[in-house]
Specification:
Blueprint (H helix, E strand, L loop, with lengths): L2 H7 L5 H14 L5 E6 L2 E6 L2 E9 L4 E7 L17 E6 L7 H14 L2
Antiparallel strand pairs: 1-2, 2-3, 3-4, 4-5
Length: 115
């Protein structure tokens, strides 16, 4: 098992399935340019080898989230800055429908800011 698989394996259900679905959806949105790597103990998603977003867990909010690079340039009320300079996070609530369209739109918007 590689480190990315191990990261997700340690997460309890239903969060694990939800996060794996999000991961697969983002990766499939642009398979030629979007890749994943494991850095700092976290799964990162990259666009043309540059940071796009990563998965993590917030102890403060007690939820998993996607953290978007260039979040400071994203105008989206669902995103939380929470003291970060370049990133904003989107909390993932497994009790609600996952906002796939919003997430894919955010991915596209961040891609426009990556040079």
């Amino acid at each position: 098992m590689n480190p990315i698989q191990e990261y997700f394996y340690r997460i309890e259900e239903p969060e694990r399935s939800t996060l794996l679905f999000l991961r697969d959806t983002i990766l499939a949105s642009d398979p030629e340019n979007i890749t994943e790597t494991f850095s700092f103990g976290l799964p990162f998603i990259k666009y043309k080898k540059k940071m796009l977003c990563y998965f993590y867990y917030s102890k403060k909010y007690k939820k998993h989230y996607l953290s978007f690079y260039h979040g400071d340039k994203l105008d989206c009320p669902e995103l939380i800055r929470d003291g970060r300079k370049k990133f904003k996070i989107l909390l993932i609530d497994t009790e609600e429908d996952i906002p796939i369209e919003l997430i894919l739109n955010l991915v596209q918007e961040v891609k426009r800011h990556i040079k």
